[in-house]
Design brief:
- The protein is mainly beta.
- It has one domain.
- It contains 5 helices and 38 strands.
- The strands form 9 sheets. Strands 2, 33, 34, 35, 36 and 37 form a 6-stranded antiparallel beta sheet that branches. Strands 1-7-6-3-38 form a 5-stranded antiparallel beta sheet, with no helix packed on it.
- The longest helix is centred in the N-terminal third of the chain and has 9 residues.
- It is globular, with a radius of gyration of 23 Å.
Amino acid sequence: MASAASSTRPPRVPRAFRVGSLGWGRRSPRRSGRASTPPPVASAARGPHAVRVPLPASGPLAPPADVRAAVDRWPWRGGLEPCGDRPFAPIPPEAITGEIPSDLRGTLYRVGPGRCRVGATRYAHWFDGDGQIFAFAFGDDGRVSAGAKMVRTDRFVAQEGSGAPDRIAVRGAWTQASSPLQNLGRFPTNPGNTAPMAHAGKLFALCEGGGPIEIDRETLDTIGPHAFEGEKLPMGFSAHAKKDPRDGTLYTWGLAAPPAIGVVAAKIDARGTVLKTAPLPLPPFAFTLIHDCAMSENYLAFIVPPWTLEPGAGMVGALSGAASFGHAFEWRGDERGATLIVLRKSDLGVVVGPHEIHAMSTYHFAGAHEDPSDPEDPSDPSDPLDAKKTLKIWVNVLIGSRPNLEARFANMYDAEWAPDGYNLLAEYAVNLEDGTLESRDLLVPRASDADVEAAAATATSAFAFDGQLPMEFPVAAAGGDASGGSGPPRFVYTLGFSGRGGGYFDAVQRLDVSNPRGPHHARLMPPGVFPSEVAFVPKRRKDEEKAEKREEEGYLVYLEYDASRHASDVVVLDAGDVAGAEIARVALPFHVPHTFHGEFEPSER
């Protein structure tokens, strides 16, 4: 086991992972490439990408003039606009193109900011937007239903009851209330805007800003804050809580309840009882944001970027309410690296860490798997499990700087996106015996300039790249993060940024990790169409079908925002052929504001 005292030295940086070497920089088909300077960002969409967005001209959803002008410049911004409550209701058959697969039964839930402004006043960060939950049900005989409702958090109710449509009534993590008196001595409120989670027979909307908020599955009405049975949980609750597919055990983490400062991990059984809590070994007296982690069969792995709020004037202002909490965070990458921590799932005991590695930034992971270092039985108590494994963590690594990324999030209506605002998917190999980072490299090299230029010129939706596009929101083909002892997945699905001119996510790509040089197939969106994170849904087999199941045997289900209609579609693709013909498409009578995360809950067979 690597103790805190023995694992503080940064590891050697492998040559293959440095900027400008194979992987980080773009490459040509015939030579190892150099890091290329991102092209300047256009000030507005041009040509076929300059889609007119039919925003409401009147009524409660009509945007103010400055928002309308922002959407005119970049049509993807229309997806930031609110859609209001949409009662859960059947979708008429004529809205369906193709055929809903007979084995695709269940509900896709998505959660995101349902509004990024209150009247004409914008929230000071995308992550402060008031939460909304969207549901799309695949029923019997190809029938489908959809709806969306705002999450009625305490802050949302207070805002709606304030009688001040253009003023912020309560303090958010980044956004101060319009009245200074509503900030002083008040901790930021929970917007319930990041991810859905089904657990212990209940549905929740999650956000790091507070505990789970229970949602009624049938109506999408907000039931209210939920307290699990057993040991008391920390104040916060991760939006990326990890569920072990073998036994339904849930692992989460969150900010400790004031006046404590720190992060606490928790283990919850399938029935919803808290079994154990344990603090993460992080530096004292500092706040940090841990959005996601990687789960393997036996471990939870955290890589915590040096984006922190530390003692000083900024912390005093943030804690007193005199200044924004979220905007007081600073990048400390020039002073220190990221922190690596690995916990055992069995008892939440520390296996590695806190271990300082190189400075990097990330929000999301694609999972982790364990690579035995010898063939001996790891269950032998005389042969410790931790000394037998290398843990391979699949993690997004931000291409550009964290402060620049946060500046975009802080003003999404004016944000302009380029490759530096996205990530590349990498593998970090950690020795669980001594905690050292043995290697780090891209899972798939970055797509070459030649391929990116060719994709920009193509009029088709299908393209095979020789590497990965700048990406976000990775989803493992197996549909979960725990390997279950079966080894790593072969495929990872992500959103991609091709830079074709739309100014935002414009591709769904399938990365073949077993063949890094490709081809890696991508579905390129037509101008004015922007996809959401995909959900991988395994195909159901009849009992008599005994043949070995292929990993990619499933469906990708996701939302597309069509700016030309100011409406969204639900799309079903064959996960084994992402660039091929669509299986089905359902045109919704409303748009779904850009969401963060989702979950597909299958129905009973």
